[in-house]
Each structure stands twice: as structure tokens, then as C-alpha cells.
């Protein structure tokens, strides 16, 4: 089974954004050695505890320090940008790192209303134009505008030998439909959705096949997971992530991912304990055997081709260990 990494470049309490970004590069290197298929990094703007506002910058840095693992955005938040500039950027990455670049496309704002206004004046209007923007971006990536189109003589240079592989990322029927209509691969964000995702994924697969395209639908299921040597240790490590999310909900998460010690000492209210139980139901937390079993169940349930794993912990060592233990269960030929 293919497994991959989604990185949100989390900042732990007591650390800097620079340290977090360097840890992201190290995580990609480790993921490559362990045999993970791809490494994607997310885009967030002025978001407490997350350090990557420009995936394209990080991908250049990470690409120069890795050799084989596929690299991509999870996702480029397209309503903020002109498709032509996005195509230029990812074509350049694909030129520098041949046959290794993915371009995940999303429509979320990625930050507060104020940050959204600072990035783009008409975000909601650009969201409405998302289907047209995606088509335009794909034409630029494939360099195949019709001859009578206004951009037919414009190339998103440099043109790589192998174009970036486009993916639509989402959690809704709209995103699945958009991916199927455009013949792109689709990544469903299980970790951030409260919807009936199995139906959404199935609709993508069936709609894609109904288009009669030569290629087959390709899908990723993105899951939040924490794996440790024992179930008890995994639950203990996960408590930092739970507390951070509770703090974010209260507007108090600006110090970054709290330590396990902070989380253990925190006086959770009964409502907050209920929130934690809901979080745990959405996540995969446990020892290697338990995590493997649950990930295989999700893969089958969602008919996914690949599982992409998001892991947020206070200690970088715990995050690496989680990915290592999962790789040990699924990848027998890693270095």
C-alpha cells in the first residue's frame, strides 16, 4: 500500500518558525529513506502554530535536499492567486526536480478573514470562479490552450519535460465533482471533514469513470494519525495536539503545540473532554498493529489508492517515530 506524508509545519511551544521549517525538511528526508511515496506541505496564513505560508518556497528547499520522494503542495489555495503565476511556479519546480512535483489545488482561505483580505481583494468572487480557474491552470500546465484562446500564445515557462501532476483537494461534493470533470486525481481530507466522506469519494470515482477517460481515477485519503510503541504512549503523545486544538478554538493557541507535560497538567473541563473524545474518533491513534488495521479499514472503506498521514506532536522525535513505526508496518523495502 502506498503511504505518504502531509506536513503542516507545526511550531512547538518554545521553538521558532525557523526551527519548525528545518524540521519539515528533515521530515521529508526521513520520509524518503523510509519509503514514503510523497511529501506534501500545507499553506496557511497568519495561523497560530503553523509556519508555512509559501509551500513553493519550501518545496525548492526540500527538493534540493532530497532525491526521489514526490513533492507537492497540500494545497495551493487557488482563489488567492492567478493561475498563470501558479503554473509558472510549479513548472519551474518540475524543471528543477523532474518527475517529482505534484500540485494540490484547494479553495480554502487558509487563515483569518483579515489575512484573506490582505492576500486577495475578492476572495469569495474567486471561489465562485474556481471551476474556471482550475481549467485555466490545467491548460497552462499542459500548454494546450485552443488556438483561438486569448492565452494560446502564452507559455508558463519554463516548460518541464514532465508536467506537475495536478490534484484537487477537498472535503465536499463540489471538490469531488470538480476533480472528476477535469480528469484529475482527488485527495479527500478525512482529518478535517465532518461529512459522509465515503459517498463523496465514491461519487468522484463513478463520475470520473462515467466521463470515459483513458486514465483511471486516482485518489488519496488524508488521515490524522499518531502511532507509538504502545496505545497508552500514543494517547499520551496525542494529548498535545488535542490541547492545541482546544486552545485554538478559544483563541489561545498562539504559543504553538503544547508539551505533553503542559497537556497532562491542563484542567480540562467536561465540555473539553467531550471535544477530545470527538477528536479521537476522527483520528487514528494506537500501537503499530492497531494503526495498521485502522488505516487498512479506511483505505477499503473509501476505495482509496493511497493513504496520506498527518501527524502533529510537540516533540519532533515523536512525530518521526510515528511515521517510522507506520512505515515498518507497510513498507518492507525501505532503507
Automatic annotation (TrEMBL):
One of its GO terms (molecular function) is oxidoreductase activity. Pfam families: Bac_luciferase. The keyword Oxidoreductase applies. It comes from the Bacteria. SUPFAM superfamilies: Bacterial luciferase-like. It is an enzyme of class 1 (oxidoreductase). InterPro entries: Bact_Lucif_Oxidored, CmoO-like, Luciferase-like_dom, Luciferase-like_sf. The keyword ATP-binding does not apply. Its EC number is 1.-.-.-. Residues 1-300 form the Luciferase-like domain. Keywords: Oxidoreductase. NCBIfam families: oxido_grp_1 (TIGR03558). PANTHER family: LUCIFERASE-LIKE MONOOXYGENASE. To bacterial alkanal monooxygenase alpha and beta chains. This is LLM class flavin-dependent oxidoreductase. It comes from Bacillus songklensis.
